């Protein structure tokens, strides 16, 4: 699974920092946060932390933010998502999962605002909404259609 996460990070991070960076600055979905949420929500904290460190270090190396900001943000989001999943959302629905994704996106926007003191609230809201739509589509495809909840709480979601 770690090798798969490394390959996924090596594919998604350059795409997110390259061609999709302009689209994301206009309010496009944040695919790194969506993939982080999917990994934690559909598997466990351990795989999410591996992904957060791998993707965070790659984003820190390729991005123009303070070094360590992406890694710390992704690790914090993994811990937040896992806490909410285990504490409050024992049997999840699409609405609960997308709510946690939107909360993670808001936390990421706040962290990056505090680091740079710059935010465009209009584009941030569009980015959160488009990421939530992308997350709902991916959640439906992976969790409902491919039945990836077999390991989570021993229950099927349909």
Could you explain the architecture of this structure?
The chain has seven helices and no strands. It has 158 residues and is mostly helical. Helix 1 (2-17) packs parallel to helix 4 (45-62) and helix 3 runs parallel beside helix 7. The model has no long low-confidence stretch (mean pLDDT 81).
What's the short story on this structure?
This protein has helices at residues 2-17, 19-25, 31-42, 45-62, 69-87, 94-116, 121-145.
**Binned strand content:** under 5%
- Can you count the helices? 7
Estimate the global geometry from the Cα principal axes: globular
Unreliable residue stretches: none
Distance between the termini: 25 Å
Order of helices and strands: HHHHHHH
Mean pLDDT: 81
Structural class per helix/strand content? Answer: mainly alpha
Largest sheet, in brief, is:
none
Radius of gyration: 15 Å
Helical fraction: over 70%
Number of strands: 0
Architecture blueprint of SSEs:
Blueprint: H1 2-17, H2 19-25, H3 31-42, H4 45-62, H5 69-87, H6 94-116, H7 121-145
Helix pairs in contact: 1-2, 1-4, 3-4, 3-5, 3-6, 3-7, 4-5, 5-6, 6-7
Observed structural traits:
single chain, 158 residues, mainly alpha
């Amino acid at each position: 699974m770690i090798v798969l996460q490394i390959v996924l990070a090596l594919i998604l991070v350059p795409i997110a920092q390259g061609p999709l960076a302009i689209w994301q600055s206009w309010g496009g979905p944040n695919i790194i946060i969506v993939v982080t949420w999917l990994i934690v929500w559909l598997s466990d904290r351990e795989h999410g932390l591996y992904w957060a460190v791998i993707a965070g270090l790659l984003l820190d190396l390729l991005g123009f933010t303070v070094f360590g900001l992406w890694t710390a943000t992704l690790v914090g989001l993994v811990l937040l998502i896992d806490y909410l999943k285990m504490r409050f959302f024992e049997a999840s629905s699409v609405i609960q999962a997308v709510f946690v994704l939107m909360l993670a996106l808001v936390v990421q926007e706040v962290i990056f605002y505090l680091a740079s003191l710059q935010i465009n609230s209009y584009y941030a809201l569009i980015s959160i909404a488009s990421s939530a739509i992308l997350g709902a589509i991916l959640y439906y495809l992976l969790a409902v259609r491919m039945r990836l909840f077999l390991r989570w709480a021993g229950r099927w979601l349909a």
